[in-house]
């Protein structure tokens, strides 16, 4: 049922609106407020799908109600009710975030079309928020240790910008989660996040993979093909394990960062791209530079913001939360009941040497759930968590 609030000080207009809306659709629950102050109190204390608000009212006018509503519940569509002399103000309220305006006396068809469109918009906003929560939960960073809290704070500051980020850390620490969070919290979140594992692509194919190629560029190039940079246009490209990229490809990535342009393999035509670059590596790139395997100029282009993801051994305080998270996730995936880990089992896991980091912990938790007792015990950990 859609809940609609009508804020109008003129009783006759208010009754007309309530009557039209109530008779139009049985699923509309319509409430009234006689002025702006009462309207704001109702909005604060209840959830409305749509609000009609007169512009000229005593105590608190419609513009003030709109401003206050946008601060406390910005997702509610606001339709302004304007008298003949209020049209300029009504247009200005749309610049301030109002969904639409209707004139007095209200035209029936325009009124009902506005209601339907506004309610559809509200549904889309709610659906997008739910989807965002699902996406964020999928890539959630579990932990409350100082190290993880610090990373979350950095992400909150950096994500809204287009600054390039270099993420470092051992295998299995969760570098890809940091990349996903940076993208999801950015203005580019509606665009694509294109992931490229540089270590998994043969050196002779990496340039084609990143920048695409034209037909005939090499033996198997049977047609033109766009690369990952083009696919990420308007979004983010995540270059995972960039320390394994060939020097030739590094030079082209450097040019792409400097000029926001790329060339497909076999072509001399420039293609303009708007891409945010996030890179990650488990290598010490400064040592790679000294060894001549990584370009120093590319390093400085990538490392505008450095985020080092700590090993699990450096954040043992997060292990209870991680165990609970993986237990729930594995139970959900298998359609089974979540297993409980005893306090002693958790303590034993905290004393383990996690050379494989989060990835290893996840595998061990799954093994303990399969092989351990109804409650996973300290003995189960000693028996089944060994390497």
Description:
Strand 1, helix 1 and strand 2 form a beta-alpha-beta unit. The chain is of the alpha/beta class and 387 residues long. The protein has three domains: 2-134, Rossmann fold (3-Layer(aba) Sandwich), CATH 3.40.50; 161-308, Rossmann fold (3-Layer(aba) Sandwich), CATH 3.40.50.300; 312-384, Helicase, Ruva Protein, domain 3, CATH 1.10.8.60. The two termini are 56 Å apart. Strands 2-1-3-4-5 form a five-stranded parallel beta sheet, with helices on both faces. Helix 2 runs parallel beside helix 3. The longest helix is centred in the first third of the chain and has 31 residues, at 108-138. It has helices at residues 11-24, 36-45, 62-72, 87-95, 108-138, 146-158, 175-184, 206-211, 228-231, 247-259, 285-290, 296-302, 319-334, 343-350, 357-371, 378-384; strands at 2-7, 28-33, 50-54, 78-82, 100-103, 165-168, 193-197, 236-240, 261-263, 270-272, 276-281, 305-308, 340-341, 375-376. The protein has 16 helices and 14 strands. The mean pLDDT is 90.
